[in-house]
Design goal:
Number of strands: 6
Radius of gyration: 14 Å
Strand content: 25-35%
Structural class: alpha+beta
Strand order of the largest sheet: 1-5-6
């Protein structure tokens, strides 16, 4: 029935969205995005390659997608379990 599979490792580009780098990140993004606040905290709204709006909160990682100018967020807990720096 079910078989085990391992995902193929790939190299990604990512940055963690933090309070001390939020302005730099905002200025370096390309594509469709907007800065906003949620409960007084800065957030980014980014358009994914699927056309969905995703919310990036402080502590989340922003990963560059294969499609130029698109990104997707990854929660910090998931990111540290899934990726290692090279």
């Amino acid at each position: 029935m079910f078989k085990k599979y391992q995902s193929i490792p790939k190299i990604i580009e990512a940055v963690q969205f933090r309070d001390d780098n939020k302005d730099c990140i905002f200025n370096s993004l390309t594509g469709q995005y907007a800065a906003d606040f949620e409960n007084g905290n800065p957030i980014l709204k980014i358009t994914t390659s699927h056309g969905d709006i995703a919310i990036v909160r402080l502590g989340d990682w922003i990963v560059k997608d294969i499609k130029e100018g698109t990104y997707y967020p990854v929660k910090n807990e998931i990111f540290i379990k899934s990726y290692k720096p090279i």
